[in-house]
Fold this protein.
Amino acid sequence: MASDSITTAFRQPRAVWAVAFACVVSFMGIGLVDPILPALSSQLDATPSQVTLLFTSYLVITAVAMLVTGWVSSLIGAKRTLIVGLVLIVAFAAAAGASGSIAQIVGFRAGWGLGNALFIATSLAVIVGAASGGFAGAIVLYETALGVGIATGPLLGGLLGDISWRGPFFGVAVLMLIALVATVVFVEPTPVPQTRSSVLEPIAALRHRSLATTSVTGLLYNWAFFTILGYAPFLMDLSAMRLGFVFFGWGILVALFSVFGAPLLKARFGTPRTLYGALLGMALVSLAIGIGAENRWVVIIAVIASGIFVGLNNTLVTTAVMSIAPVPRPVASATYGFVRFIGGGLAPFVAGKLVEHVNVHLPFVVGAVTAVVGAVVLSTVRPALDAADEEERRPESEERRDAEAAVHAVPTVEEEAVLAETALVEDRRFGSGRS
């Protein structure tokens, strides 16, 4: 089943590939600035904690904006929401490249985060609705885009950042402009849904224990993840080019374990046990950095190795949220994105402050603790995760028998598309006309 999902994920219409390419470029923005963080600090006369605000403004605004993405999409339609998000990313990435101070870059990164939220939340729904192979294949494709974007972002940042710290920002602006044109050309127009989404839906969804618990797990994991991503570059004392290659190695592991490792390990051990292992692995590499912070090679090896656990967590926590949340998938995605990106946004800034006021070891010890606590929190919804795994393993004949018995039910693949488009593009043909 895992290999079938992987194979099917890459047989897609042009519209899906256009959005997936835009996703790659969008996710580049997460690790793009890593190789230039030390250069920004030295050339713009900023402290490390001030520089880490590039992550904080970007991710916190992304998190908050996640709450309104469904509402915006229900007002103007999915394609227009994608285009607005892409236009904002192009404009603010270019503006960041033209900035003259760290405060300006931090501000423009916030606008970038707004565009990122509008694009990411809607793109997931569009890919799930339009992709062949149903929900599982769409998630694999989406996580592939995430992995490739995260992997190539630091490499692009290192190559262009070795020329100038402005280069990575202008580079993303150009690539996202290409993605914008592809989206305009290949993604078909979508009607405005007759039923408008409420801005309160993602917050109200937190009353569901399964969604709230997995979202908190995402927050705790992202705290450890972005502590490493946001502050480890300051410990390596490397040029932008070399930092780019370190995080490229890290990103390659993220991509491999997102696309191939996660489905295979899930099929072998199940979602809960695989995630326990991934979270504990994340804790160990974070602790290794905390203990060996003065040793460049310890930090480099631990950062690269963390890509294994980042890849597993990215895929499996996202899949878990979508599988067990008792709300439409766009709402679950917005709720989960809001909670987890809050953790990712605050962690680098807190890490910088802890280094300034205590020592360089503490932020990574805190990250290790949050990852362990994340595993404990996740264990409280293990029955729901096991049930979701069991449902996925059901024989096809049993699924057909149940579908025939439920004469008033929506067919499985069609139901996936309708759920994915709820509050976004409910009446478009992605939902009901394609299997």
In short: Residues 2-432 form a domain with the Growth Hormone; Chain: A; fold (CATH 1.20.1250.20). Residues 240-269 form the longest helix (30 residues). The CA atoms of residues 23 and 120 lie 7 Å apart. The two ends are 18 Å apart (CA to CA).
